[in-house]
């Protein structure tokens, strides 16, 4: 079941968000933030701050009264810097390891897209780590296409 996140979900969201941080850090420790000692609490606090905004949403996937994933998305205005008009943006999609491949990720992304479409977003963008091939396959199956490639150089 997909539903809006609630304050009671904060702990589970923090655990999943910190897992997202750890996964990305393992992909490229120079590019991504290390989770640190308080990542769960920090990520939970951050996501909780997004619950009540008119321009953002956090949705959770619940199975047997347990949070197994979440999606965080929002509306963004036109951006001269990014050379794009207004858009919806999916910031996070996280599914616990045990629930991957069961349709949870698809359901979360589709629910976020529906929320963004209801609010007038003409398109939806997202970013994925270069090494996250599983996520890239999911996004391609859902109709996303490559449009930009981030490149990083350490100084």
Number of helices: 4
The helical percent reads 25-40%
Biggest β-sheet, characterized?
5 strands, mixed
Percent range for β-strand residues? 15-25%
Q: Rounded to an integer, what's the Rg over CA atoms?
A: 15 Å
Task: Tell me what the structure shows.
- This protein has helices at 10-27, 39-49, 104-118, 133-141; strands at 2-4, 56-63, 66-76, 87-95, 124-126.
- The protein is α+β, with helices and mostly antiparallel strands and 155 residues long.
- It has a single domain (2-141), classed as 3-Layer(aba) Sandwich (Aminopeptidase).
- Strands 1-2-3-4-5 form a five-stranded mixed β-sheet.
- Strand 2 (56-63) and strand 3 form a beta hairpin.
- Helix 1 packs across helix 2 (39-49).
- It is globular, with a radius of gyration of 15 Å.
- The mean pLDDT is 96.
Short summary:
With 155 residues, the protein is of the alpha+beta class. It has helices spanning 10-27, 39-49, 104-118, 133-141, and strands at residues 2-4, 56-63, 66-76, 87-95, 124-126.
Q: Tags for this entry?
A:
5 strands; globular; alpha+beta; 4 helices; Aminopeptidase; 5-stranded mixed β-sheet; single chain; 34% helix; 155 residues
What is the strand and helix layout of this fold?
Blueprint: E1 2-4, H1 10-27, H2 39-49, E2 56-63, E3 66-76, E4 87-95, H3 104-118, E5 124-126, H4 133-141
Helix pairs in contact: 1-2
């Amino acid at each position: 079941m997909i539903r809006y996140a609630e304050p009671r979900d904060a702990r589970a969201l923090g655990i999943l968000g910190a897992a997202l941080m750890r996964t990305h850090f393992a992909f490229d420790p120079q590019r991504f933030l290390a989770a640190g000692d308080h990542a769960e609490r920090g990520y939970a606090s951050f996501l909780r701050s997004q619950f009540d905004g008119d321009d953002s949403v956090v949705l959770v996937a619940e199975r047997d009264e347990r949070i197994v994933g979440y999606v965080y998305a929002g509306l963004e205005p036109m951006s001269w810097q990014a050379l794009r008009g207004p858009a919806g943006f999916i910031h996070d999609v996280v599914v616990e390891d045990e629930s991957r491949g069961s349709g949870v990720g698809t359901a979360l992304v589709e629910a976020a897209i529906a929320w963004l479409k209801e609010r007038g977003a003409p398109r939806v963008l997202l970013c994925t780590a270069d090494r996250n091939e599983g996520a890239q396959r999911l996004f391609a199956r859902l109709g996303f296409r490559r449009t930009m490639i981030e490149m990083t150089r350490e100084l």
